[in-house]
Amino acid sequence: MPSITKTDVVVLGAGAAGMMCAIEAGRRGRSVVVIDHAKAPGEKIRISGGGRCNFTNMHCTPANFLSENKHFAISALKSFTQQDFIDRVKARGIAFHEKTLGQLFCDGSAREIIAMLTDDMRDAEARLELATDIQEVGQIEGGFETRTSAGTWHSQSLVIATGGKSIPKMGATGLGYDIARQFGHSVTETRAGLVPFTWASNMHESWGGLSGASLDVRASCNGAAFDEAMLFTHRGLSGPAMLQVSSYWREGDSVTIDLAPGSDLAALIRAERGKRPKVSVWTVIGEVLPKRLAQQLGQAAGDKVSRLADLSNAAIDEIVAGIHSFSLVPGGTEGYRTAEVTLGGVDTAGINQKTMESRLVPGLHFIGEVMDVTGHLGGHNFQWAWSSGVAAGRSA
């Protein structure tokens, strides 16, 4: 017979949310075990932010999250704020800095955040079971049974912190969704979020040659707009602006990109027309945009008349409008392979927003990315992990 060990709380998943939950529950005197199939805890933390972990955002608010219930995240984010997590980072002595748009990164390594969490878990006497496969979970009298490759656990509370489907090479699966459905919860449609776009077949050959070019843009899709950098790749479009709008994009939708936000291109071109009448309009545009991009735009426009002297004001306005409202329909996205997050997840209608506890099964909690709460790029998803983890840890 496999060994059966009793504990107050079993947490499935040793990521950001799971470890945070274990710390809070352990500090309340609860006996906690965290189970993960990975050989090391916090693997997504380790690789995030280029290895420096964009651990939160100074400007994080509920408006930075997508969910079918846009109000769901409010309570947890208020109960444990970005400043609360920053205070822990400071108390630990981890040096950090702010990049653009309120993004906070470690000066050193993301491993410092992992070490802070694992040390706090140890101090809270939370047990960590790694390289352990979860085989089956179910309800028993007074709680839950979790069968694993290392034995069976009986617990009063069960916390699902298994994440989403993004980055499958790190072992990401849909296990959390399967468990949710098993206990009667609905799961909203899941898809890759914060993910690069791929070219449509008719653009790949001509536009793929711009690989490596980057510029600041304003990207818009389905009512959402982001002012950040865009990067051309051989496969499509990437960079923060594209990752952000990908969360709002659906197959077949167009993405509109202002390639020169804040610049008065029309005035510049008219001024240059008087100084350099024989110069091509695309040469002037190539002094504002990356030169290769300007050349490609010129080829795509197919304009035979491009000398400044030959362009009317109306023609200039038309060219400029195409640059400020450059529109394309991506062929698709790179999918979960490179996605930073999973959109959708366990339906929040079945979850208490203050405790993350199931409204259907007492003692069952869901936290982090497995839920239908997805943050913008820039540390917001980590903040959701910390906040939802604390909320469950204070209740489980």
* Overall pLDDT confidence: 96
Secondary-structure-derived class: alpha+beta
User: What's the main sheet like?
Assistant: 7 strands, mixed
The poorly predicted ranges are none
The level of helicity is 25-40%
Strand content: 15-25%
Number of helices: 13
Radius of gyration: 25 Å
Number of strands: 21
Apparent shape: elongated
Cα(first) to Cα(last) distance is 29 Å
Explain the layout of strands and helices.
Blueprint: E1 4-12, H1 16-27, E2 32-35, H2 43-47, E3 54-57, E4 65-66, H3 74-79, H4 82-92, E5 96-98, E6 103-106, H5 111-123, E7 127-129, E8 134-140, E9 143-148, E10 151-160, H6 175-182, E11 191-193, E12 197-198, H7 201-207, E13 214-221, E14 224-232, E15 236-238, H8 240-246, E16 255-258, H9 265-275, H10 281-285, H11 291-301, H12 313-324, E17 326-328, E18 332-333, E19 341-343, E20 364-366, E21 374-375, H13 380-393
Parallel strand pairs: 1-2, 1-10, 2-7, 10-20
Antiparallel strand pairs: 3-6, 4-21, 5-6, 8-9, 9-10, 11-19, 12-15, 12-18, 13-14, 13-16, 14-15, 16-17
Helix pairs in contact: 1-5, 1-13, 9-12
Q: What brief labels describe this structure?
A:
single chain, 396 residues, alpha+beta, 7-stranded mixed beta sheet, 7-stranded antiparallel beta sheet, 13 helices, 24% strand, elongated
Walk me through what this model shows.
By secondary structure, the chain is α+β, with helices and mostly antiparallel strands. Helices cover 31% and strands 24% of the residues. Strand 5 and strand 6 form a beta hairpin. Helix 1 packs parallel to helix 13. The longest helix is centred in the last third of the chain and has 14 residues, at 380-393. The two termini are 29 Å apart.
